[in-house]
Amino acid sequence: MSDYLCGKRLHVYIREILPVLEKFNEIHFDEETKEKLISVSPATIDRLLKNEKTKFRLKGRSLTKPGTLLKHSIPIRTFSEWNELEPGFVEADLVGHDGGNLRGEFLYSLDVTDVHTGWTETTAIRNKRGMDIQCIERD
User: Fold this and answer.
1) Three-state DSSP state, 120
2) What integer pLDDT is reported at residue 44 of this predicted model?
3) Strand, coil or helix: what is 61?
4) Torsion sign over Cα 117, 121, 122, 126
5) In angstroms, rounded to a whole number, what is the distance separating the alpha carbons of residues 95 and 33?
6) 13-45: pLDDT as tens digits
7) On the CB side of 32, how many CA atoms lie within 13 Å of its CA?
8) For the chain: N or C, fewer Cβ within 10 A?
9) Which H/E stretch holds residue 10?
10) 6 vs 42: CA distance, rounded Å
11) Integer Cα distance of 57 and 113 in angstroms
12) Is a pLDDT exceeding 70 seen at residue 60?
């Protein structure tokens, strides 16, 4: 119901939602329990929910392969020599925003960064279908 809010936000949410739940007879508890719920601190909420939240945390799922480890071990031939001391040499990263589910359509973020200047351009991409990639218009 609260969509896994952190302790600070859940603390405020509890104060707002308890009267509503009581009004519609969705929840019933005595005054002592109600006072404890309203007065619980955000830090205590986080501590009490820590074990529950770790059950839903995504771990170790990444579509991105580390680039710097491979860059030094695999010789890559380009049209010119790599020179990190002048602008124009870039590194790119494609990040999938799949929400933990690789099925169906979801967006990717394509980040291209100039190694020398640090200038970064980012765009959203609908899919990875090769030549049919369609970029979403940016403002």
Assistant:
1) strand
2) 94
3) coil
4) negative
5) 45
6) 999 999 999 999 999 889 999 999 999 999 999
7) 0
8) C
9) helix 7-23
10) 8
11) 29
12) no
